[in-house]
Amino acid sequence: MKLDDAFGIHEQALKLRVHRAEVLSANIANADTPGYKARDFDFQAMLRQQIPRQESMRVTSPGHIQPSEGPVSASELFYRIPTQPSLDGNTVDSQLEHTAFAANALEYQASLRFLSGNIRKLMTAIKG
User: Domain locations in the chain?
Assistant: First the structure.
């Protein structure tokens, strides 16, 4: 039995949730920065991309090109389309960012609980 099979996609989901929390917190921190453009990424699309990437992007030699660091590269982030941009060019909607951050945190907790339940089942199976 492989542990990767037991945990499913939740390992990748947690990594993406952490990265999304960083992106959203940067938006919140720069809510008053003139000219700052709010950024985000499509979590579901990134998660679908992580599954084949994890299986196909194995480095077997030190001479191979290393995959990009982190679950989402800067080129995969998009700029939010503002509903009401400010006069100074800032596109951060503070309420939208706080809502997205809270939803992301709840979904992160859900993945953690799922993993915790799987670990508890494995421990019960090992101990008998």
Answer: 15-53+72-127
Q: How deeply is 92 buried, as exposed, middle or buried, from its count of CB atoms within 10 A (0-12, 13-18, 19+)?
A: buried
DSSP β-bridge partners for residue 40:
78
Amino acid at residue number 106: L
Query: Which pTM was predicted?
Result: 0.73
Buried b (16+ CB within 10 A) or exposed e, 21-43: eebbeebeebeeeeebebbbbeb
| Model pLDDT for residues 43-53, shown as the tens digit of each residue | 988 888 876 55
Give the C-alpha separation, 96 to 72, whole Å: 21
Q: What is the DSSP letter of 87?
A: T
